[in-house]
Amino acid sequence: MYNNYHQKFFYTKMSPQYKQSNPNEKHPKFGHLPLSTSGPQDCALIGSSLLNTPYFNKGVGFTPEERVQFKLTGLLPQNVQTLEQQTKRAYQQYSSRADDLAKNTFMTSLHVQNEVLYYKLIQEHLKEIFSIIYTPTEGDAIQNYSRLFRRASGCFLNVNDITRVREDLSQWGNPEDIDYIVVTDGEEILGIGDQGVGGILISEAKLVLTTLCAGIHPNRTLAVVLDCGTDNEELLNDDLYLGLKKPRVRGKEYDDFVDTFVQSVRELFPRAYLHFEDFGLPNARRILDRYRPQMACFNDDVQGTGCVTLAAIMAGLHVSKVKLQDMRMVIFGAGTAGTGIADQVRDAIAADSGKSKEEAAKQIWCVDKPGLLLKSQGSNLTHAQIPYARDDDDFEDTDTTTLLSVIKTVKPHVLIGTSTRPKTFTEEICTEIASHVSRPIIFPLSDPTRLHEAQPSDIYAWTKCAALIATGSPFPPVKFGGKEYEVAECNNSTCFPGIGLGCVLSRTKLLSDKMLVAAVKALASQSPALEDGEGALLPDVVNVREISVRIAAAVIGQSVEEGLAVEEGIPDDEEELEEWVREQMWEPVYRPLKLVSKETATKVAKGQLGSAGVD
Question: Ranges for the Malic enzyme NAD-binding domain (predicted)?
Answer without folding.
Answer: 302-560
